[in-house]
Design brief:
70% of the residues lie in helices and 0% in strands. By secondary structure, the chain is mainly alpha-helical.
Length: 362
């Protein structure tokens, strides 16, 4: 038994893990998270080197949405062109990472799994950096070259880690993480070599900052890919919630409940790799985030993915918006990479989870 919630009964056709005694209703919690998320986005747009009152923030947004002429001055430009796209990108990336982390943890039946620890983010980063250095990323970060390279790197890495962990026919959840860390560091070395090959010093600095996670390049065109991908993946995973629940009980039990395990795993491989590639392409590799969010939400709403997925998406969006506010405002002279802050939070969370796993003998 892992730290995942145990199933109520194998006769339950929904294969829903039992609700924790401390769980709260997901509906009211989701509504609360949505309201707080709107407030956090408002605060993210309002705060900065030029403070803007929240009322003026919404007035500027309303004028743009209704086609009214913007007011003279810089406030409308700051709100619409600079801060709002960044806040929305943070929300989309946070929601996407929350969903990906939830799906990956169900796929590998390991609560300490996430795209970063499994090396998937490293593979996506390697593909994206290769596209940049080799001149294949046409159209900037939105170009199909960069997104496609990140997706290919993520998918190939996920498949490699899975193959290594399953070698010999066995499967050890902790072994999967160790394989992911080893392969991820190996790919990270290749990425560093590619960065050193960049001829432009400014390009090298930008790529290194991007590899640590950054939302500083946010723009309206950059929002297009995650704005389409993240909601679509959310709907797809929500439709597969019963299958995700069943995977936690093992392949044989899932098959006995009528789940096509092979097909579902293939779908999850493709989905998680696609989303990871898109998110890495627009924000870089953000460490530990997809590990923290699902586990924290699971402690609150339980392990049933019908409840867990929407809460993870909303909480992930809220948390990354707040983290980005900290990154922008913590220092006067420069901006912190997002990955630095999430690592400071996520590393202790990982140690806590490992302690629980090793202590329970999982």
């Amino acid at each position: 038994m892992t730290v995942f919630d145990a199933p109520v009964s194998r006769k339950d056709t929904d294969a829903a893990p039992a609700r924790s005694r401390r769980s709260v209703p997901a509906g009211p919690l989701s509504l609360l998270l949505a309201v707080v998320l709107v407030a956090a986005v408002t605060a993210a747009v309002a705060r900065g080197s030029t403070p803007i009152p929240p009322g003026e923030v919404w007035s500027a947004i309303w004028r743009r949405l209704t086609g009214e002429a913007p007011r003279p001055g810089a406030d409308d430009l700051i709100v619409w062109q600079l801060r709002l796209p960044r806040a929305l990108l943070a929300a989309l990336v946070g929601a996407g990472l929350g969903l990906v982390g939830t799906a990956v943890q169900a796929l590998v039946r390991n609560p300490v799994a996430d795209p970063y620890l499994l090396g998937v983010s490293n593979g996506a980063s390697l593909g994206a950096v290769a596209a940049i250095v080799l001149g294949l990323a046409s159209g900037g970060a939105l170009g199909l070259g960069l997104s496609g390279a990140a997706f290919a790197g993520a998918l190939a890495t996920f498949a490699l880690v899975w193959a290594v962990a399953r070698r010999g026919g066995g499967f050890a959840p902790l072994g999967l993480v160790l394989a992911g860390v080893a392969i991820g560091q190996f790919l990270s070395g290749f990425t560093s070599c590619l960065v050193l090959q960049a001829g432009d010093e400014q390009q090298t600095h930008s790529v290194l900052f991007w590899l640590m996670g950054s939302l500083s390049g946010a723009s309206w065109p950059l929002l297009a890919a995650p704005a389409v991908t993240v909601p679509a993946i959310w709907l797809l995973l929500q439709a597969r919630a019963r299958g995700l629940n069943a995977l936690l009980m093992g392949d044989e039990t899932a098959a006995g409940l009528g789940i096509d395990v092979v097909r579902l795993r293939r779908e999850l491989f493709a989905v998680t790799s696609l989303v990871t590639g898109v998110l890495v392409a627009v924000s870089g590799a953000i460490a530990f985030f997809a590990l923290m969010v699902p586990h924290a939400c699971r402690l609150v709403v339980g392990g049933d993915h019908r409840r867990l997925l929407p809460v993870s998406a909303l909480f992930g969006a809220l948390l990354l918006v707040v983290v980005d506010i900290v990154c922008r405002t913590a220092m006067d002279t420069q901006e912190l990479p997002v990955g630095v802050v999430t690592s400071l939070i996520g590393a202790p969370a990982l140690l806590y989870l490992l302690d629980r796993l090793l202590g329970s003998g999982s």
